[in-house]
């Protein structure tokens, strides 16, 4: 009974928290309309049926002649009012509960209405409120047993069965309330898990950008040192032959051009990332020329690597080679984690002007083992960010019975 969970949580969060004074829902959901209609019809229908039975000279619910005529009429009218009040039981629960509690001292016709009210209190109020109300209802049931003796039951049986039905309604209401709170807690945990995953992804991107910036620092230092060396040579030998001066100038121009490109890459990374922390710069990073050594290391670790390199490593720009090396390194690491014992094929191709292509393939094992090597689960996200910052792209996924990682990096002519 009650509103659906999304509406309930949005319109009445204080009820879930156990606040007895929390605001009621302003609107009924479709489910609320159905439940309220059913409660209203059941409460009103049973009230009318019981009242008509009590007006009969030979009633079946109470002992004949035990109830005066005026009390039967009073019970019927008051119980009809209580049954109509079930239609607004959520908004005016406190007033309706107090009214029905007074009726329970003498009313037979309001029995089902009392059970519905107890159930509603169990759903929408904390346990202390429910326990206090049920205790008063048990006291009222003791008075009712003496005022309205039933036809086929003794006073003890009437008192006992009344208490059993009230306890059952209260238990059902607490069960519904606990289930709703459990669903809300599950939803909160799912939302927190999604937020934490988004945070981990953002942190992985920032760390990848920062690491790229540190790598660029070493490259820029190398190129600027070349500029300084050749400029110094021209300064100390102004009378050198024209051929040497032209050669040095060409080297200076080429190094300056490369330094500017690397500087743009660094600035692009730092604009979207966080400032670089105060750490010692790392040593120069490997490029495509180090791929055979990387393959040998993987083979020594038990991975059957088949390496195919199309272009000459020395012809590939350093920045592109570094990014390609990191992509292949992470791809081999993933294969070692998730597909141990399988053969891995690494193919590098392309040409200047067309770009550099990387493809890593490995069969998917029939039984996927739990990774023996711990990881954060964001390695591929960092690689995709690296490829994007380099002007390329990266994709990965299952094709037939193989896991395929494909990347493309720009390679200017």
Automatic annotation (TrEMBL):
<feature type="transmembrane region" description="Helical">
    <location>
        <begin position="67"/>
        <end position="88"/>
    </location>
</feature>
<keyword id="KW-0812">Transmembrane</keyword>
<dbReference type="GO" id="GO:0016301">
    <property type="term" value="F:kinase activity"/>
</dbReference>
<dbReference type="InterPro" id="IPR011712">
    <property type="entry name" value="Sig_transdc_His_kin_sub3_dim/P"/>
</dbReference>
<feature type="transmembrane region" description="Helical">
    <location>
        <begin position="33"/>
        <end position="55"/>
    </location>
</feature>
<dbReference type="Pfam" id="PF07730">
    <property type="entry name" value="HisKA_3"/>
</dbReference>
<protein>
    <recommendedName>
        <fullName>histidine kinase</fullName>
        <ecNumber>2.7.13.3</ecNumber>
    </recommendedName>
</protein>
<feature type="transmembrane region" description="Helical">
    <location>
        <begin position="94"/>
        <end position="120"/>
    </location>
</feature>
<keyword id="KW-0067">ATP-binding</keyword>
<keyword id="KW-0472">Membrane</keyword>
<keyword id="KW-0597">Phosphoprotein</keyword>
<feature type="transmembrane region" description="Helical">
    <location>
        <begin position="159"/>
        <end position="178"/>
    </location>
</feature>
<feature type="domain" description="Signal transduction histidine kinase subgroup 3 dimerisation and phosphoacceptor">
    <location>
        <begin position="208"/>
        <end position="273"/>
    </location>
</feature>
<feature type="transmembrane region" description="Helical">
    <location>
        <begin position="127"/>
        <end position="147"/>
    </location>
</feature>
<keyword id="KW-0808">Transferase</keyword>
<dbReference type="InterPro" id="IPR036890">
    <property type="entry name" value="HATPase_C_sf"/>
</dbReference>
<keyword id="KW-0547">Nucleotide-binding</keyword>
<dbReference type="InterPro" id="IPR050482">
    <property type="entry name" value="Sensor_HK_TwoCompSys"/>
</dbReference>
<keyword id="KW-1133">Transmembrane helix</keyword>
<keyword id="KW-0418">Kinase</keyword>
<keyword id="KW-0902">Two-component regulatory system</keyword>
């Amino acid at each position: 009974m009650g509103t659906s969970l999304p509406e309930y949580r949005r319109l009445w969060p204080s009820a879930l928290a156990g606040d007895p004074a929390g605001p009621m829902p302003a609107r009924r959901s479709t489910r609320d309309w159905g439940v309220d209609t059913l409660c209203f019809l059941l409460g009103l229908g049973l009230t009318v049926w019981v009242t008509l039975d009590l007006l009969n000279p030979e009633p079946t619910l109470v002992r004949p002649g035990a109830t005066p005529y005026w009390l039967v009429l009073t019970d019927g009218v008051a119980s009809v009012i209580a049954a109509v009040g079930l239609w607004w039981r959520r908004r005016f629960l406190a007033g309706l509960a107090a009214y029905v509690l007074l009726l329970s001292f003498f009313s037979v016709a309001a029995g089902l209405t009392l059970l519905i009210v107890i159930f509603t209190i169990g759903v929408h109020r904390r346990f202390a409120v429910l326990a206090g109300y049920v205790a008063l209802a048990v006291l009222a049931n003791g008075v009712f047993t003496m005022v309205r003796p039933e036809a086929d039951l003794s006073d003890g049986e009437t008192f006992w069965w009344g208490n059993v039905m009230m306890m059952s309604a209260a238990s059902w209401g607490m069960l519904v309330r606990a289930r709703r709170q459990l669903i809300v807690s599950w939803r909160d945990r799912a939302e927190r898990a999604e937020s934490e995953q988004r945070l981990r992804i953002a942190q992985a991107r920032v760390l990848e950008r920062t690491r790229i910036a540190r790598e660029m620092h070493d490259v820029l230092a190398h190129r600027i040192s070349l500029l300084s060396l050749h400029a110094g040579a021209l300064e100390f030998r102004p009378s050198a032959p024209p051929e040497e001066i032209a050669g040095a100038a060409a080297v200076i121009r080429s190094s300056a051009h490369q330094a500017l490109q690397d500087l743009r890459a660094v600035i692009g990374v730092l604009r979207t990332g966080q400032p670089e922390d105060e750490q010692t710069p790392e040593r120069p990073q490997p490029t495509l020329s180090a791929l055979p050594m990387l393959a040998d290391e993987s083979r020594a670790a038990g991975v059957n690597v088949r390496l195919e390199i199309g272009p000459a490593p020395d012809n590939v720009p350093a920045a592109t080679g570094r990014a390609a090396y990191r992509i292949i390194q992470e791809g081999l690491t993933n294969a070692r984690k998730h597909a141990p014992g399988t053969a891995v094929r690494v193919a590098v191709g392309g040409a200047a002007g067309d770009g550099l292509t990387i493809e890593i393939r490995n069969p998917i094992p029939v039984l996927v083992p739990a990774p023996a090597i711990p990881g954060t689960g964001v390695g591929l996200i960092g690689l995709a960010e690296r490829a994007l910052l380099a002007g390329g792209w990266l994709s990965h996924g299952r094709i037939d019975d193989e896991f395929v990682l494909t990347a493309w990096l720009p390679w200017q002519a």
